[in-house]
Write a structure and sequence with these properties.
CATH class of the domain at 3-215 and 277-288: Alpha Beta
Bound molecules: NADPH dihydro-nicotinamide-adenine-dinucleotide phosphate
CATH architecture of the domain at 3-215 and 277-288: Alpha-Beta Barrel
Mean pLDDT: 97
Number of helices: 13
Number of strands: 10
Radius of gyration: 19 Å
Distance between the termini: 39 Å
Largest sheet: 8 strands, parallel, barrel
CATH topology of the domain at 3-215 and 277-288: TIM Barrel
Shape: globular
Oligomer: single chain
Strand order of the largest sheet: 3-4-5-6-7-8-9-10
């Protein structure tokens, strides 16, 4: 495993990390979650991603039990939570980035995960109902209280991240360090273009999600007969409606042919492609089975095969290389 700096911070994060969305406390049994975390940790993964909203808090509870059972030294891993969507409560005070919910979400995540502090705490989405000053002050205070070490954002625009930095600068507060955007062969603009202006200054690390586009980039939906896969779940029809469309599947079919020519698997090609981008601090893997994680962790071995010629061929298939502004 290799480690990368999380943006301008001094924190070293494993280039492959592991997350629990859909799976922990929901799709998979707790003993499988334990096997997956153990496999990840034993392979050098040092970052485990979570959120208050995942399975309405159950995902954090499962992860907390595993962390406790494993007894890994606290200085050997990084664990995150995210605030915004709430943990299932429907009342107006149970979500958002206002001071009340940010404090309560943090305290609840600490209890569920059974840790004294969160290494990373993300604002899961921007909150139009809360002044940015309130959120930045809240995050800064949590750092001063020792409850979180670094804070960041998820799916914020470059402008919103800059606004947070401007507030931090104005009041001498600690600003956001990392952003968690979707990044994979099908979704590229934010990471490849929009954030370009803020990677160096004020500085931004990225913990990218859905490297396999929820499994589509494994190629398995080209002829998937299995019922238990993510995009066959009825509650996720909004996601399969977006992803399982002919334009995407045609590209995936071509990519699968190209991966076969290269002699590597589709998951390896898709994950190695994400790792190739040096703006990516860590690629968060997801898996519902140990065989999947075992395969995905080996993507690291294939990054060097992605030569400029190979990257160009992939761009020709994808036809979605973002255009950089010329001014
Ligand atoms: P992926 O795009 O890699 O999808 C993972 C899913 O794809 C698995 O659960 C499995 O689903 C399937 N899969 C994975 N590997 C294989 C394989 N080798 N062969 C066949 N199928 C495979 O990642 P996620 O979408 O899970 O995102 C990763 C993490 O990122 C999340 O756990 C979460 O921590 C974070 N995230 C953050 C978001 C945010 O808004 N900040 C949003 C979404 C995710 P199955 O077996 O069910 O088909």
């Amino acid at each position: 495993m290799k480690y990368r700096r999380l943006g301008k911070s001094g924190l070293q994060v494993s280039e492959l990390s592991f997350g629990s969305w859909i799976t922990f406390g929901n799709q998979i049994e707790d003993n499988t979650s334990e096997d997956l975390m153990k496999m990840a940790y034993d392979s050098g993964v040092n970052f485990f991603d979570n959120a208050e909203a995942y399975a309405d808090g159950a995902s954090e509870k499962v992860m907390g039990e595993i962390l406790k059972k494993m007894g890994w030294a606290r200085d050997t891993y990084i664990v995150s939570s995210k605030v915004f969507f709430g943990a299932g409560g429907k009342l107006p005070t149970q979500k958002g980035l206002n001071r009340k919910h940010v404090y309560e979400a943090c305290n609840d995540a600490l209890k569920r995960l059974q840790v004294d502090y969160l290494d990373l705490f993300f604002c899961h989405r921007p909150d139009k109902q809360t002044p940015i000053e309130e959120t930045v002050w809240s995050m800064h205070t949590l750092i001063q209280q020792g409850k979180i070490l670094y804070w960041g954002t998820s799916e914020w625009s470059a402008q919103e991240i800059m606004e947070a930095h401007m507030v931090a600068r104005q009041y001498n507060l600690i600003g956001p360090v990392m952003e968690q955007p979707q990044y994979n062969m099908l979704v590229r603009d934010k990471v490849e273009v929009e954030y370009n202006q803020i990677y160096k200054n004020p500085g931004l690390g990225t913990t990218i999600w859905s490297p396999l586009a929820s499994g589509v980039l494994t190629g398995k939906y080209l002829n998937n007969q299995e019922d238990k896969t993510r995009l066959k779940r009825t509650e996720l029809s909004w996601l399969s409606d977006k992803l399982l469309v002919s334009e995407t599947l045609e590209k995936v079919e071509q990519l699968a042919g190209f991966a076969a020519e290269m002699g590597i698997s589709m998951p390896h090609l898709a994950i190695a492609w994400c790792l190739k981008n040096e703006r990516v601090s860590t690629v968060i893997l997801g898996a519902s089975k140990t065989e999947q994680l075992k395969e995905n962790l080996r993507a690291i071995e294939h990054v060097d095969k992605l030569t400029p010629e190979v990257m160009q061929k992939i761009d020709e298939i994808l036809q979605n290389k973002p255009k950089h502004p010329t001014f």
